Amino acid sequence: AREMPEETHDIQSLSDAAEAIGGCRRCSLYEQATQPVFGEGPQDAEVMFIGEQPGDQEDLAGRPFVGPAGQVFDEVIEKVGIDRSRVYVTNAVKHFKFVPRGKRRIHQRPDSGEIQACKFWLNLEREFVKPKIVVALGARAAQSLIGKAVSISKMRGEPIELEDGAVLYITNHPSYLLRIPDVEGRARERAKFAADLELVRDHMA
Ligand code: URA
Asked: What residues form the membrane-spanning segments (predicted)?
């Protein structure tokens, strides 16, 4: 049997955490994933964006938001004037959860237990980066941060203060935009997503 690594000790920095997560056995998702995908961005970032979990491309690249959802994210933040190189980007769950289907790997939603288990890493990222603004991209990220199920439509646009003093904005996940079949609906939701991110931009120093 494999021993649980002593990951909680000796984590003094973000880079220690990024290394220690390689031995994470807090849930079973490590068994199937290629690698954990830790957050990325400057340690002094004012804003932390939190997605759900790495997708297929992120799992292979070892970097967050580099696949199709990442492309939407990049386009919209650029449009509203947020520089990706100045923000910290991570996920509520650090391993890709999927079921194989032929040659493809189909994304599965992480469950509450997996989100809870992985909160250990997200909390470390929040402690080391100390973002003033936290942005939950989608319901899973919001659930991880506030500990209960949330309605995006009810909670978007109204920042919430977190217990560490950071301000939380909740918006949709960019992959939600990709799943909307009709062009008009997609454009409408994309505009709402951009409006949410404009609030974040305006909140930035
Ligand atoms: N979706 C996410 O939530 N995170 C990623 O990193 C990629 C896709």
From this structure: none
